[in-house]
TrEMBL record:
The lineage of its organism: Bacteria, Bacillati, Bacillota, Bacilli, Lactobacillales. This is Amino acid ABC transporter amino acid-binding protein. Belongs to the bacterial solute-binding protein 3 family. The keyword Transport applies. GO terms for cellular component: extracellular region; membrane; outer membrane-bounded periplasmic space. SUPFAM superfamilies: Periplasmic binding protein-like II. The gene is glnH_2. One of its GO terms (biological process) is amino acid transport. CDD domains: PBP2_Cysteine. Keywords: Signal, Transport. It comes from Streptococcus gordonii. Pfam families: SBP_bac_3. Residues 1-24 form the signal peptide. Residues 47-265 form the Solute-binding protein family 3/N-terminal domain. One of its GO terms (molecular function) is ligand-gated monoatomic ion channel activity. Coiled coil: none annotated.
Length: 284
């Protein structure tokens, strides 16, 4: 009888442990829910979480004082202000921009996010605020002026970018050397680990202006695209807010002012605001 009682006691404790573990797992599951926050929840938290680049000057980068700066940051600051909350920036790599929205780590992605059909399957894009196409930068003494010149050479790209997708689809003959971060990709070019680097033409133009000995030999490649904020798929409430805010800001010439503050100091006369800026979500 004592043996039977002992067995029953052990079984009871085991069942209790399973029940407690299951309840704990259920609570943890709810805590890590990937459902996007509502605007009320964002306001109650007091902060808007925005994914941005921390190393892509002049669009999104961290300055010497540890503060986020750039063209994307100007819009992020304004969106948070118009929601009446503080902004919390989260640095991301190009490859995980969509994942941070899907897993609800951020509310909005503003990391120089080019709109593509493939990405539309993962996230919802708001109205655009910039125009862009691909460019290729290389050393002046071995300048790449045509895609044909890349055959047999190594092209540096950043993972998860439109450049990676474009070359894999249209030019499989070009050898790609891939990096997770833009800073690592540019360092690879500086170190001579590749013959050229491709990403948005706006970005390579800015970089070449700040790095002597390099030039954008191919200034426009592929079809022109737009850059826009993105939210989690189905988050219509936040999407509608962003769209209305972009339309309102367009009437105030907000994006041209942001260009003058953040991009013009880099581009100078090498680019025109109207060629890059999309005001009020209307592409012209």
């Amino acid at each position: 009888m004592k043996l039977i009682k002992s067995i029953l006691t052990v079984m009871t404790l085991a069942l209790a442990l399973v029940f407690i573990t299951a309840c704990g797992a259920s609570k943890n599951s709810n805590a890590s829910s990937s459902k996007a926050r509502t605007i009320d929840e964002i306001k109650k938290s007091g902060e808007l979480r925005i994914a941005v680049f921390g190393d892509k000057k002049p669009f999104g980068y961290v300055d010497n004082d540890g503060s986020y700066q750039g063209y994307d940051i100007e819009l992020g600051n304004q969106l948070a202000k118009d929601l009446g909350v503080k902004v919390k920036y989260v640095s991301v790599d190009a490859a995980n921009r969509a994942e941070y929205l899907i897993s609800n780590k951020v509310d909005i992605t503003l990391a120089n996010f080019t709109v593509t059909d493939e990405r539309k399957k993962q996230v919802d894009f708001a109205l655009p605020y910039m125009k862009v196409s691909l460019g290729v930068v290389s050393p002046k003494d071995a300048l790449i002026k045509d895609v044909k010149e890349l055959k047999g050479k190594t092209l540096i790209v950043t993972k998860g970018t439109t450049a990676e997708t474009y070359f894999e689809k249209n030019h499989p003959e070009v050898k790609l050397q891939k990096y997770d971060q833009y800073s690592d990709a540019y360092q690879a070019l500086l170190d001579g680990r590749g013959d050229a680097f491709s990403t948005d033409n706006t970005e390579v133009l800015a970089w070449a202006l700040e790095n002597k000995g390099y030039e954008v030999g191919i200034t426009s490649l592929g079809d022109p695209d737009t850059i826009a904020p993105a939210v989690q798929k189905g988050n219509k409430e936040l999407l509608d807010f962003i769209n209305k805010d972009i339309e309102k800001l367009g009437k105030e010439n907000f994006f041209h002012k942001a260009y003058e503050k953040t991009l013009h100091p880099t581009y100078g006369d090498a680019a025109k605001a109207d060629d890059l800026v999309v005001e009020g979500g209307q592409v012209k």
